[in-house]
UniProtKB/TrEMBL annotation:
One of its GO terms (biological process) is intracellular calcium ion homeostasis. This is Cation-transporting ATPase. Belongs to the cation transport ATPase (P-type) (TC 3.A.3) family. Type V subfamily. Residues 149-191 form the Cation-transporting P-type ATPase N-terminal domain.
């Protein structure tokens, strides 16, 4: 969602901005590049949207990002045919089309903008921008059949092509120079360029070159990675744009053209196998498509034509059934077509280009949801603080050097040098290394990542949602048995494990015919459940080419015959004539079939038992139906119900014109099909590991609620001793408001040893909470929807203890993830790709167990199809997060250590030598930063998460106290060295120094020419720098050790061999330089020899500082128990919404409710208000403000 503001360009403002850009040498242009809104505000004036030539878009999320777009004017007069300029006559036949309202007559012009690949045109009537490139949803079934059924005229096609743009999903392979420019213009790299330029000008060449090389490698790798992604995505969609299609043009007949010329409203002819280049609604004939691109499952799906209804309802709402069964989605493969009559299979183009399902998938990759992670915003604040510290140093240096009368040029140069000390240029590379190492380790575990920045976020996950089928349980189902009914009673169970064939009867006929299986190249293909069910009958499927006239059967595409192992049957064949496919929202499917030798027809239905029972005559449903169903679902079985009725019709044409509602009514209940869905062997140990790590686990499934509860208990997601509360909500009816019922599910151990579940009907209305937080809510998708709409204020209360969400549609899964995120949970989602794509994209860390094209948009993909990848990812995320914090703290301290040392030397117009800096910068900091993050993740998940904020008390105190220790030690050393009897100010009294050097216990003789140092006020050579350098260098090494904490999130530091070796080597080299008496070392490092006792004193001071800092960091700042005690004593509590709700509910004696029903209030918005245990502040703020919202019609509109 975006807010849109209108602006008009002003010549004077543009001219002034241009002059300012020239005067600032392009700096202003750079600022405008980073902040596009400033450019608009500087060069334009605000105006109503209908007059704007520039629009500014602002996202309505928490990031409030801005985009600048130019308004484009399209002229229809450029078309090669005359256009009616009469304002009263529409340009296109579709009366609902925005094109008619967007084109100004007689000018024949329209205004549009392009936002993230989608085109919006200005609606002159409603005064807002509206999307084009699709047929409006307000079209009814009648409109689609009669307005578009015969195709568009050539003239209307041309108009739509101009307005809607090409039907192409074009992903530009960005030129390398453009990618390079984008990388280089990053604010940090700009500051880095300034820093390095300054250092190079001062002769600090070695470290500058090292940083330049590192930055170039980093930029080249980033550009290469972006380029590879761009090429991969381009190749993925390129074939889509080159499909040859046949369309029907009104009054002209069929015509072949390239798919990029298609427009919404065209009639597409489906000849056979075809990769769909657009979204289209089927209006004539049936077809079978492979929707693997959308769902992640390569299962054939049958599509049926949109019914020809006379009503004016929008076509998507023509009945309660799922409209998607009529829609052919872009990118899916048509694998079989079945004309309904003599004509071809036809579909009307609904959406083109990026408006399509595939376009939406590609857009989600091109424009991913920004990460709302505290680490990155805190890092920016920290860098700003360091920059301000540098600015303080800049003015300090200016004051010192101006006071001593140093020339202005040298003064400014030295001040700028101090400004650049605080922000280390190695920071971006160092922060990236932890993620790179984690990504490499994940790759070894066959977990692939397309969004590396999310690895750090995985370290904060505290709730993981799992799909059930194919994720927690095995993909395949095994037939267990059937429970037929007769005379309103369940009969003896037929077990498939007995080896006996399923006896003939209506139940066998239903299992043989009620499915969406197809015969493709001699192989039966379709949904695994359907396939397993069909195999259980031992019947076989044959092509329609076989002549079945002898059976007196109607023409059919699918013929079912008894196989050699099938039971004796009086029926020689079954023909499937009409199919109403299964959809997850309807939870059922049905077919109309004809048995050989009969002149009438049969309807069969299968689906969720609760749903099927609703459509059956009550007298045919056994009275113990619920108890029997519960008995099987409690044992974790997948249960399917079947039903049947005879259709007293003699004509095939009558059957083919039947609606779904007519077929699915007054059915006879046939029985239950019981299927086993076993847990994967990895499921229980992984869930146990997550539970022990205090990470919540939630199940979101499309399966039966009772089955889900059983699987949750069997897998350990719900402990055996915990209580489960069923939450059932009902829509408001004519005289009754919406209601929500709370029922306690209890376990009772029977004598047989089997666990059975029953609904407690006791009269207590609140669960006894002595056992603590040991209750779990379970609900269906239907109940979730009702609660979302009518009891929204109850939703957070349910979610903090909600564990099972069954019969959830794909949209509801995404919505649920979003609601968890609103409670400040960091949510992971693990699914097999089928119907989980939206949820995988919505979660902070989506992990797909499918390698289908649909999972491309998921941040993580595991090639091992079980949930073991989840703890691996969390461990690596935690290790990467802790590494990022450690590196950030280290680089901050490194900058502060150097800043303090340099500032002290500036006091007497001195600084460290180039090789002194080089030793610290390259030999220590650069090497340490690049290896510090390579420590592996700890093999066990800790029962708490690492800190998620840089601006947290322990971290801020760590930096502050270490800065204090550094400051105290360096200032003490700086002052104490001046008190020594052998001290002299070298640059002032060089003769005195040279005359007295015989007093030192060293064989080194220093000549008057001391290397690069000149004994002038800019000198490097001094006792102060000789004293401060080893202290600052050892300090840099020791803080690297202190900040490289191992357990509980990373392995111990000694397991990182390279890092440990570098630290020991750097420390050894520093001590060697400190105590060495080699003239070449002293000359090269620009040191002055001092007495041995002084050097020992320096080492002791550095070691004392290390011991104090290590004790404070390890025993106090990293002491979790101490911080928890402090929080408790001072009353500090988590600000997370879910924590607040948990605290409130723990104190609420009326929660959780059990065995009672609540009703929605009389508020006209329908929100739940029960003053008994609901306070006004708990009602979401947006609900209170709903009525008070207003928008500016001209300046502000929603896209």
């Amino acid at each position: 969602m975006c807010e849109v503001f209108g602006y008009q360009s002003q010549t004077l403002r543009s001219a002034l901005s241009f002059i300012a850009s020239v005067l600032t040498c392009g700096v202003l242009l750079l600022v405008f590049y980073w902040r596009p809104q400033w450019r608009v505000w500087a060069t334009c004036i605000s105006c109503p949207l209908q007059e704007a030539d520039t629009v500014l878009l602002r996202t309505t999320d928490e990031f409030q990002r801005y985009m600048r777009k130019k308004v484009i004017c399209l002229c229809l007069s450029t078309l090669k045919f005359p256009i009616n300029k009469n304002p009263g006559e529409p340009l296109v036949a579709d009366c609902h089309s925005v094109i008619n309202k967007a084109v100004l007559k007689p000018e024949l012009k329209l205004r549009c903008i392009q936002v993230q690949k989608i085109r919006y045109v200005w609606d002159n009537l409603e005064k807002q921008f509206k999307k084009v490139g699709l047929l409006e949803d307000s079209n009814s079934c009648y409109d689609i059949h009669h307005t578009f059924g015969l195709g568009l005229t050539s003239e209307e096609q041309e108009i739509r092509r101009l307005v809607c743009g090409p039907n192409a999903i074009e992903v530009e392979i960005q030129p390398i120079w453009k990618l390079l420019v984008k990388q280089v213009l990053n604010p940090f790299y700009v500051f880095q360029s300034f820093t390095l330029t300054l250092w190079l000008s001062q002769g600090y060449i070695e470290y500058s070159v090292a940083i330049i090389i590192l930055s170039v490698i980093s930029i080249v790798l980033s550009v290469y990675d972006l380029r590879q992604q761009s090429v991969k995505l381009h190749n993925l969609v390129e074939d889509h744009n080159k499909v040859q299609v046949t369309i029907n043009i009104k009054d002209k007949g069929l015509q072949e053209l390239e798919s990029h010329l298609l427009v919404p409203g065209d009639v597409l002819i489906l000849p056979g196998k075809l990769s769909l280049p657009c979204d289209a609604v089927l209006i004539d004939g049936n077809c079978v498509v492979n929707e693997g691109m959308l769902t992640g499952e390569s299962i054939p799906v049958t599509k049926t034509p949109l019914p020809q209804l006379e009503n004016t309802m929008p076509w998507k709402c023509h009945s309660l059934e799922d409209y998607r069964r009529h829609v052919l989605f872009c990118g899916t493969e048509v694998i079989q077509v079945k004309p309904s009559g003599t004509g071809p299979v036809r579909a009307v183009v609904l959406q083109t280009g990026y408006n399509t399902a595939k376009g939406d998938l590609v857009r989600s990759i091109l424009y991913p949801r920004p990460l709302n992670f505290k680490l990155y915003s805190d890092a920016f604040k920290f860098i700003v603080f360091l920059a301000f510290l540098g600015v303080g140093g800049f003015f300090y240096a200016l004051g010192i050097y101006m006071h001593h009368g140093v020339p202005s040029r040298d003064t400014v140069t030295m001040a700028l040098l101090l400004l650049t000390v605080t922000v280390p240029p190695v920071l971006p590379a160092a922060l990236t290394t932890g993620i790179v190492y984690a990504q490499k380790r994940l790759k070894k575990k066959k977990i692939f990542c397309i969004s590396p920045q999310r690895i750090n976020m995985c370290g904060q996950l505290n709730l993981v949602c799992f799909d059930k089928t194919g994720t927690l349980t095995e993909d395949g189902l095994d037939l267990w048995g059937t429970v037929p009914t007769a005379g309103n009673c369940f009969q003896v169970v037929h077990s498939f494990t007995s080896g006996k064939a399923l006896p003939w009867g209506p139940l066998c006929a239903a299992m043989a015919s009620c499915h969406s299986l197809i015969l493709l190249n001699g192989t039966i293909q379709g949904d695994p459940l359907d396939l397993k069910m069909f195999e259980g009958t031992a019947w076989k499927m044959e092509d329609c080419s076989v002549d079945y006239c002898t059976f007196g059967m109607s023409d059919s595409r699918v013929i079912i015959k008894p196989g050699p192992r099938a039971s004796q049957s009086p029926v020689e064949a079954i023909a499937i004539l009409l199919q109403f496919p299964f959809s997850s929202s309807l939870q059922r499917m049905s077919v109309v079939a004809q048995l050989a030798g009969e002149d009438y027809f049969h309807a069969y239905m299968k689906g969720a038992p609760e749903m099927v029972a609703r459509f059956c005559r009550s007298e045919t449903v056994p009275k113990n139906f619920s108890q029997e169903l519960r008995n099987y679902t409690m044992q974790g079985f997948r249960v399917i119900a079947l039903a049947h009725k005879t259709l007293k019709m003699g004509m095939l044409s009558e059957v083919l014109s039947l609606s779904r509602d007519e077929v699915e009514s007054e059915l006879t209940f046939l029985g239950l099909l019981i299927m086993e869905n076993r847990l994967k062997k990895e499921t229980k140990p992984v869930l146990k590991e997550l539970r022990e790590a205090c990470i919540r686990t939630v199940m979101i499934t499309g399966d039966n609620l009772q089955t889900a509860i059983t699987v949750a208990k069997n897998s350990g997601m719900i402990p055996r001793e915990s209580q489960v509360i069923l939450v059932e909500a009902n829509e408001p009816e004519e005289f009754a408001p919406a209601s929500v019922t709370w029922q306690l599910v209890e376990n009772q151990e029977k004598g047989t040893g089997k666990n059975e579940t029953y609904i407690n009907t006791g009269n207590h209305s609140v669960l006894d909470k002595e056992g603590g937080n040991c209750y779990h809510f379970a609900m269906s998708g239907k109940s979730y929807q009702v609660i979302f709409q009518h009891f929204y204020s109850l939703l957070p209360k349910i979610l903090v203890n909600g564990t099972i969400f069954a019969r959830m549609s794909p949209g509801q899964k995404s919505s649920l993830i979003e609601e968890f995120q609103k409670l400040n949970y960091y949510v992971g989602m693990c699914g097999d790709g089928a119907n989980d794509c939206g949820a995988l994209k919505m979660a902070h860390a989506g992990i797909s167990l499918s390698e289908q094209e649909a999972s491309v948009a998921s941040p993580f993909t595991s090639k091992t199809a079980n949930i073991e990848c989840v703890p691996h990812l969390i461990k690596e995320g935690r290790a990467a997060l802790v590494s990022s914090f450690g590196v950030f703290k280290y680089l901050t301290m490194y900058g502060i250590i150097q800043f303090i040392g340099t500032s002290l030397l500036y006091w007497q117009l001195q600084l460290f030598g180039n090789y002194q800096y080089l030793m610290q910068d390259v030999a220590i900091t650069l090497m340490v930063c690049l290896t510090m993050s390579s420590t592996h993740a700890y093999p066990t998940l800790a029962p708490y998460r690492p800190a998620g904020q840089l601006l947290s008390p322990p971290l801020l105190l760590s930096v502050f106290l270490n800065s204090c220790f550094t400051c105290i030690v360096q200032i003490s050393a700086f002052l104490f060295v001046k008190q020594q009897p052998w001290y002299c100010e070298v640059y002032r009294y060089s003769e005195c120094f040279l005359a007295n050097q015989g007093n030192f216990s060293t064989n080194v003789s220093l000549e008057r020419n001391t290397g690069n140092a000149t004994l002038t006020p800019g000198s490097i050579l001094s006792f102060e720098s000789t004293t401060l350098w080893p202290i600052t260098t050892i300090n840099c090494i020791t803080v690297a050790f202190i900040f490289s904490k191992g357990k509980p999130f990373r392995k111990p530091i000694y397991t990182n061999y390279i890092f440990s070796f570098l630290l020991i080597s750097a420390l050894g080299l520093t001590i060697f330089i400190l105590f060495s008496d080699f003239q070449d070392i002293y000359r090269g490092m620009e040191f002055i020899p001092t007495i041995t006792s002084w050097r020992v004193l320096i080492l002791i001071a550095a070691l004392i500082q290390f011991c104090v800092a290590f004790f404070v960091e390890d025993a106090i700042l990293q002491n979790r128990e101490l911080w928890l005690l402090i929080k408790k004593e001072f009353g500090f509590y988590s600000k997370s919404q879910y924590r607040n709700w948990q605290k409130k509910l723990a104190e609420d004696s009326t929660w959780p409710p059990t065995n009672r029903t609540d009703y929605s209030g009389n508020d006209k918005n329908g929100y739940y208000i029960n003053l008994g245990y609901e306070s006004p502040e708990q009602i979401p703020k947006e609900k209170h403000e709903l009525r008070g919202q207003s928008t500016e019609q001209h300046f502000l509109t929603r896209l």
